[in-house]
Specification:
Helices cover about 30% and strands about 25% of the residues. It is α/β, with parallel strands linked by helices and about 375 residues long. It folds into two domains: about 1-155, VC0802-like (2-Layer Sandwich); about 175-215 and about 250-365, Vaccinia Virus protein VP39 (Rossmann fold, 3-Layer(aba) Sandwich).
């Protein structure tokens, strides 16, 4: 099988490393935010159930260059969808489009949807049922300029970044997949201490603790609706994965200056089934002593103002410079406001949703 996976824009290398660790498979970058690998049905479950950097896991059915909507329709109709969709299941098409075209994403969805219906009816005499709101099978199409990818979504309606532990809603929540990637960049391991001095709702701490204890994602993936997969085999694999969950006492701490965020982080952490030490603090004054520091400070967009953020960044970086740590990873949309007083190992551009950000990796040496 050809597997596509979407991930955080700018963190494709982290996703590739994770795929190798989880499946033993080599992956390559398709474009920013998407990687490609080969695998089998077990790999589909492993990536959905254990990956922390991926948003969606897709089974590639068709890829190529096209010239028109009619061309897309004709190409899609060549696929025998009777192999992939059981007659009692509903389906929908979701399309994304990048580039200048004389059609919209909804036009792609309409044409591909009709191609699926026509192909299925030609093969079986049966008309598939469309359900735009809650489809059991989702066919995803991405069009980038004159190239397209058509794939079955094995993840489902909700992206993998929608973790079920997020009970408390922070006003500026961090994408959990991005949080995990930041932890990876810190070179943290379960034997090291990790500290997030502006923890908000606890996402960075929770993602580190879930990773350190091999805690899987939710289990209601769309792959359970795909009839060509060996569900009995996959169910046994899921049981094996869940039997490996650990209960380590990891050295992970988080603090915040806002009381309700601390309480919210504790609520989310309890829901996630992990242990993290939280306390109230001022990140510009408390010693930032830890093996690694991973932090997502305010940007001054939804929380605070840029003047306040500039003062905060200056005080925080002064504190960071005088504290005892090995590596620090900080993400911000305003790197120009952050005075750097330690050695920068790496700067990388990432997308935090639709917001361009910079991740800075620092060593104390």
């Amino acid at each position: 099988m050809e597997i596509l996976a979407t991930t955080v824009w700018g963190m494709e290398d982290i996703a590739i490393e994770e795929v190798k660790e989880l499946t033993g498979r080599t992956a390559t970058v398709v474009h920013k935010g998407m990687i490609r690998s080969r695998g089998d049905d077990e790999d589909l479950l492993i990536l959905n159930h254990l990956s922390r950097s991926l948003h969606r896991v897709l089974l590639l059915l068709l890829h190529g260059v096209f010239s028109s909507l009619k061309d897309l329709y004709d190409r899609a109709r060549t696929i025998n969808f009777a192999r992939y969709i059981a007659p009692e299941l509903s389906f929908a098409v979701r399309a994304e489009r990048i580039g200048d075209h004389n059609f919209r994403s909804m036009d792609i969805e309409r044409e591909i949807g009709q191609a699926i219906i026509d192909s299925y009816r030609n093969a079986t005499g049966f008309k598939l049922r469309v359900n735009l709101d809650e489809p059991e099978v989702i066919v995803r199409v991405e069009v980038r300029h004159d190239t397209f990818w058509l794939a079955l979504d094995t993840t489902g309606m909700d992206s993998l970044y929608k973790r079920n532990y997020r009970v408390y809603k922070h006003p500026a929540p961090l994408n959990p997949c991005l949080a995990y990637c930041l932890v990876r960049l810190s070179k943290w391991t379960s034997s090291k201490s990790l500290f997030d001095p502006m923890c908000g709702s606890g996402t960075i701490c929770i993602e580190a603790a879930r990773w350190g204890n091999d805690i899987p994602n939710r289990g209601d993936y769309a792959l359970w609706h795909l009839p060509f997969l060996d569900h009995q085999r996959l169910d046994k694999l899921r049981t094996t994965i869940e039997s490996r969950i650990r209960n380590r006492k990891l050295k992970i701490r988080g603090c915040d200056i806002v009381d309700r965020h601390i309480e919210g982080a504790r609520t989310n952490t309890e829901r996630a089934g992990v242990m993290v030490e939280y306390f109230k603090c001022d990140a510009t004054k408390i010693p930032l002593d830890s093996d690694v520091i991973v932090c997502n400070p305010p940007y001054g967009l939804r929380v605070g103002s840029k003047k306040k953020v500039k003062r905060l960044y200056a005080a925080f970086m002064d504190n960071l410079a005088r504290s005892d740590w090995e590596r620090a990873v900080i993400i911000t949309s305003n790197p120009q406001l952050m005075p750097i007083k330690v050695h920068i190992v790496e700067k990388r551009a990432v997308m935090y949703g639709n917001l361009p950000c910079t991740v800075m990796v620092m060593d104390k040496a």
